[in-house]
Amino acid sequence: MVAVQHNDLKVLVFSFASAVEFTFNGFNSSSSELLLYGGATIDSGALSLNRNSTFSIGRALYHAKVPTRSSPNTTDLLNFSTSFTFSITPFKDRLPGHGFVFAFVPSVGLQGASSSQHLGLFNQTNNGEPNNHVFGVEFDVFQNEEFGDINDNHVGVDVNSLTSIVSRRAGYCVTLANANHEKKPQRALIEVPFDLSRVFLDEMHVGFTASTGQLLESHKIIDWSFNSLVTIA
């Protein structure tokens, strides 16, 4: 195991299974660990996914691909978990929209992505294509009937499409405690069985994407941790 420690980033690489673990305790504009596209920037220690402009897209990806399988071409996927703190804030005198997605994507850049209701993830042509190889969890504050959104404040699980395979109304928890000491909820907001072996390639990029349309809001990631680990019998 090789460990690299910085003030704002910890990376652990496990060579025996090519598994990856990293933690961003805030974000540094001089760091090369993130790939930023479109309107994504580092602002006052936070990852800002979009600027205060209409019809914009922002995307931030971890700089290296993440292995998803215990060995190439097998259907046995690595376990993964992630945790992040985020804020969605409307701009003054503007109606809020649209949302952001935590996503696994097959390639870098913004090719094939549109703004507004497509959340910087898909476009009108490729949305729903089985060869997208995209898995995401959307945090959406606008109800789009074309995608069957349940309301204008929901969390959804997306597989190759913005028509979520399951979604739930979002809830909010306000506390004065340090976020690092928050306990996980006893009951998950969403639980759904799904075989991702046909969705994931052997290696994927992981990160966040967001968009605005005529509606505007700020999407920021405050901190982020991720790991993909093999369970050793």
UniProtKB/TrEMBL annotation:
Residues 20-178 form the Legume lectin domain. One of its GO terms (molecular function) is carbohydrate binding. CDD domains: lectin_legume_LecRK_Arcelin_ConA. Gene3D superfamilies: 2.60.120.200. It comes from the Eukaryota. Keywords: Lectin. Pfam families: Lectin_legB (PF00139). Belongs to the leguminous lectin family. This is Legume lectin domain-containing protein. It comes from Ficus carica (Common fig).
